[in-house]
Design goal:
Layout (H helix, E strand, L loop, with lengths): L1 E5 L5 H10 L4 E6 L3 H9 L5 E3 L2 H5 L6 E4 L6 H10 L3 E5 L6 H14 L3 E4 L6 H11 L6 E10 L13 H4 L3 H17 L3 E9 L9 E8 L4 E8 L6 E7 L2 E6 L3 E6 L2 E6 L5 H17 L8 H20 L3 E2 L11
Parallel strand pairs: 1-2, 1-4, 2-3, 4-5, 5-6, 7-10
Antiparallel strand pairs: 7-11, 8-9, 8-15, 9-10, 11-12, 12-13, 13-14
Helix pairs in contact: 1-9, 4-5, 5-10, 8-10
Length: 334
C-alpha cells in the first residue's frame, strides 16, 4: 500500500517510521504547504516525493491511501476529495469540527467504496492496552467510575497559530487534548454519554479555551470526569479506572498499575518506544481496514467524540447539563 502523508509537523516522523516498519506499506509522498518541511519529511522515507499541493499529490498516481494530519477544519475537504480520487483515508482526530462534516466524510467514503479510519492513538497506546487486557480478564469486575486528567500548554506561542483559531481548530484544549480523554474514557467506560456538564476557561488572552472540565454520565451508569489544565507546575497524563474490585491507573510515563484490596502491582512498565509502537499499530490497523477489516476505532465512536466536544461547549455556555438523546446515527449507517 502506497501512502501519502499530508502535514509534515510534529507527528510526521512517527507516521513515516510506522509505514517503514510494516510489510506491504510505505510512505511514497509527503505534502505540506511549507516546502522545506515536506522535503525534510519525504527524505526520511525512501523514494518519497514532496508536494505542496495535496490535490497534486492525489492526482500523481503515486499513492493508494492518505494520512490526513492537518488543522481540524481542513479534514472535510481533504477526506472527501481523497475519496473521490479513490484513495483510502486515515484522518487524525478529531474526525471533524461538526457532526455534519463527520457525516459527509463517512458518506463520501461509502459512496467511493474506500476505507475510512480515524486516528485515535489512545486505542493503540501500550499502557492503555495493558489496562484494557486486565479489565477483560474480569478479575476486577465491571468498570463503575472513570477519572481522566491531562495537562497541556495552551499559551499563545506554545504551538502553531491555527490551534488558537476557533474557525480552524473548532475550539481549544477540549477539542484537541480533551478529544484524547473523551476517546479513552468512552472506550473504557463501555457506553455512550447521555448527559454532559462542562466548564471552560480562556486564559492568556486566548481566543479558544485553555482549560476545561467535563462531567459525563454514560448510558450504562458509569460516571466520567475529565480535566484538561494548561501550564500546571507538574505535567500529567493519568487515566484512573475504578472497577468493582480494584482500581487501575494507566499513564504513558509511569506505566500501568492496579491496586486490589490494599495491594498494588505493576501490570506494565513504560518503554522508550511506546509512542512509536502505538503509531505503528495504528498504521497496521489502517492497512488492514483498507484490505476489508473493521477498524479498531469504530467511526461512530469517533463521531460521538466530536458530538461530546460540541455538547461540552454548549454545556459550558449555558452553565447547565446537556442531554443527549440515544445513539446518534451517522450518514453512512442511515
Amino acid at each position: 500500500m502506497r501512502i501519502g502523508l499530508i502535514g509534515a509537523g510534529a507527528v510526521a516522523d512517527f507516521h513515516v517510521a510506522a509505514a517503514r516498519a510494516i510489510d506491504g506499506a510505505s510512505i511514497t509522498a509527503v505534502c505540506d504547504i511549507d516546502e522545506k518541511a515536506a522535503e525534510r519529511a519525504a527524505a526520511t522515507a525512501p523514494r518519497a516525493t514532496a508536494f505542496t499541493d495535496y490535490r497534486a499529490m492525489y492526482a500523481s498516481g503515486l499513492i493508494d491511501g492518505v494520512v490526513v494530519n492537518t488543522p481540524h477544519a481542513l479534514h472535510l475537504p481533504m477526506v472527501t476529495e481523497a475519496a473521490r480520487a479513490g484513495l483510502h483515508v486515515l484522518v487524525e482526530k478529531p474526525m471533524a469540527t461538526t457532526l455534519e462534516d463527520c457525516d459527509a466524510m463517512m458518506a463520501a467514503c461509502v459512496e467511493a467504496d474506500v476505507a475510512l479510519a480515524v486516528g485515535h492513538i489512545q486505542h493503540f497506546m501500550p499502557d492503555k492496552l495493558a489496562a484494557r487486557d486486565l479489565i477483560e480478564t474480569a478479575e476486577l469486575g465491571d468498570v463503575v467510575l472513570i477519572r481522566d486528567y491531562r495537562s497541556t500548554d495552551y499559551r499563545p506561542g506554545s504551538r502553531s497559530g491555527w490551534f488558537f483559531s476557533p474557525q480552524m481548530a473548532g475550539g481549544g484544549a477540549l477539542i484537541n487534548i480533551g478529544g484524547h480523554c473523551l476517546d479513552r474514557s468512552l472506550w473504557f467506560g463501555g457506553g455512550r454519554a447521555v448527559e454532559v456538564f462542562a466548564s471552560t476557561v480562556n486564559r492568556f488572552d486566548s481566543a479558544v479555551e485553555t482549560d476545561g472540565n467535563i462531567a459525563m454520565r454514560l448510558d450504562n451508569g458509569v460516571g466520567v470526569s475529565i480535566s484538561v489544565i494548561s501550564d500546571p507546575p507538574l505535567r500529567a497524563d493519568s487515566l484512573l479506572v475504578v472497577c468493582e474490585r480494584g482500581v487501575i491507573v494507566a499513564d504513558p510515563r509511569a506505566g500501568t498499575s492496579v491496586q486490589v484490596d490494599g495491594k498494588r502491582r505493576v501490570v506494565r512498565e513504560p518503554r522508550p518506544d511506546d509512542i512509536q509502537s502505538a503509531f505503528t499499530a495504528q498504521m497496521a490497523d489502517f492497512v488492514a481496514v483498507a484490505n476489508g477489516a473493521e477498524p479498531a476505532v469504530p467511526l461512530e465512536h469517533a463521531r460521538h467524540v466530536v458530538e461530546l466536544v460540541l455538547a461540552s461547549y454548549r454545556a459550558a455556555e449555558i452553565g447547565g447539563a446537556v442531554q443527549l438523546e440515544g445513539a446518534a446515527v451517522g450518514a453512512a449507517e442511515r
